[in-house]
Amino acid sequence: MFTGLIQEVGSIRAVRPAAGGAELEIAAPGIGPEAALGESIAVNGACLTVERAADWGFACHAGAETLERTTVGGLGVGAAVNLERALAVGDRLGGHFVQGHVDCVGEIVRRSDEGSTVWLRFAIPDEYARYVVEKGSIAVDGISLTVTDVSESVFGVAIIPHTLASTTLAVAKRGQFVNIETDILAKYVMRLLGGESAPDARVSDISRDMLAEHGFI
Questions:
Q1: CA–CA dist 85, 185 (Å, integer)
Q2: Beta strands in 63-203 (DSSP E)
Q3: Least confident of 24-33, 42-51, 70-79, 198-207
Q4: CA 175 from centre of chain
Q5: How do beta strands 117-123 and 154-159 pair?
Q6: Any idea what DSSP says for residue 2?
């Protein structure tokens, strides 16, 4: 489990075919010396397992499904990546609960720089748009962000200076593909409402009593 608060921006040091997937060496001098064999690290939002760790960073294996369903398969040497180690017991939850299980790949369809704030809009597949709500949480390349608005299968976010300085979004541009993980709470609520098997289920059907009954509050 992660929070979506990026701890270091690393870079791809090497990519090698391995066991139907790929081995990635990631330069991360801040995380590498502390990383432990077998621990989970979110790489651009995709949960990967440390297979080797050193002062320069760490190596991990990305399976075929990860390469096919995320942007990890398109990473080349020198590419910058957002990194976050898994939560430890007692850690503060500063962002939101992020599993490191990428739902889909989205595309940046607009970037607008206004003073010190950058506004980004992302297009995602229709089947995942149902989990995105205004003022809700979403993870973009592993970064915990708040949705500012939603229009069908497009949503927007506002990026503050600290996030720009601490993540890869500083150089994000139109046409770029990113990993998207929607809020796990939205998925559970949709499941409780019947999901696709109950097309007449509405957000208005959700009440405080219903959420309490199922353990959400």
A1: 22
A2: 80-85, 104-114, 117-123, 137-140, 143-151, 154-159, 177-182
A3: 198-207
A4: 18
A5: antiparallel
A6: B
* Spatial separation of the C-alpha atoms in residues 105 and 162, rounded to whole Å: 24
Tokens of 56: 């320069």
Residue 187: the pLDDT is 82
With 0.90 as the threshold, say if the pTM is over it: no
Using the 8-state DSSP alphabet, how is residue 192 labeled? H
pLDDT at 93 (0 to 100): 79
Dig out the tokens for 71 from the structure.
């942007």
For the chain, which domains are there? 8-85 (2.40.30.20), 104-182 (2.40.30.20)
Q: How far apart are CA 18 and CA 161, in angstroms?
A: 38
Task: Report the C-alpha gap between 182 and 101 in whole angstroms.
Answer: 9
Q: Are 87 and 41 in contact (CB under 8 A)?
A: no
- Name the E strands within 4-125: 8-18, 21-27, 40-43, 46-54, 57-62, 80-85, 104-114, 117-123
From the list 105, 179, 192, 94, the residue with the least C-alpha distance to 142 is 179
Strand, coil or helix: 67: helix
In 54-77, which positions are buried (b, 16+ CB within 10 angstroms) versus exposed (e)? eeebbbbbbbeebbebbbbeebee
User: Considering Cα of 65, then 32, then 86, then 149, what sign does the dihedral take?
Assistant: negative
What tokens does 213 get?
């009954």
